Target: DNA repair nuclease/redox regulator APEX1
Amino acid sequence: MDKKRGRSAKQKASPEKKEEEEEEFVVESKGKQQKGKKKTDDNEGKKSEQKIEKQQKIKEVEKKVKQVNQADEKFDLGDGRFNTPTVKISSWNINGIRAVTKHESAVKYLNDSKFDIICLNELKADQGVFDKENLGAKFGKHYFLYLNFCKSKAGYSGVAIASKVKPISVKCDIGVDKHDQEGRTLTAEFERFYLVSCYVPNSGQKLERLDYRTKEWDVDFQNYLEGLRKKKPTILCGDLNVAHHEIDLSNPAGNKKTAGFTIQERDQFSNYLQKGWVDSFRHLHPKEVKYSFFSARSNSRQENKGWRLDYFIINKEASDAITVSDINLTVEGSDHVPIECEVDLRKL
Model:
């Protein structure tokens, strides 16, 4: 398969892996105890030895993780040049790659050759799981795969870019340590533009991360994007975890203190757009009501009760280059649906 992974294994050992190691150890210990029928003192001593051995195994795993985390990022790069006048891009919060790829329609979508680039949010897998379960095989052979996993917590967050063309450069995260532990951004540089795949932090059910999200993350992330647009046109896509206007969710009156629709989050998004960025869907469809996220509860998708949380954003100078920006409601497998756009490279 002609596909490259975005980074070396940099994640802590997954909980599943540790459980497997512990389970194997317990089985082995029981076998020894059944064979021996030794005295209580011997059993106590054996338990003590087992505990020490178990701790040593855990330390060895932790030591190995530290060494892996020190490895350099290595990407398979190219000239970033598309040989077509237009590029089709998809972005989808899959809410777990292992779960979503159990759905036939999702696997078919990830193999669809009509897209030049597919961006994914919320992988919920670390490098070890990704490799062990050969999850890269779920993508079409025509894609090169670039990944950024969460470093602080196994099975959390994570983003990916699958591209038919090898980028000129690929950058994980935004270069600010307090934001760079959760694997939330991946930037690919192509000949005519930058593409940033992003999964913005959720403010939390009790808004416990609201200040972090609006006063720290939003500020630093917007500064990062401003730096990119000074070099070449920049497209941001992903789950931005904000419904900007009342038209962007089905129940605005009942959600004014809900994460994703607080005034603080909406104001920050407004400030960002006012700096010279364009929400391509709303630009092309000023009055259309369409959602990209549906709660798994209360048949919200069937009743079209959702939120528009996923976006293609482009700097204003190049906004005419996005000629199509839409939401695909036909694909199943996640609580989000894919968003899709078409970019005319001749207008960049």
The chain has a mean pLDDT of 85.
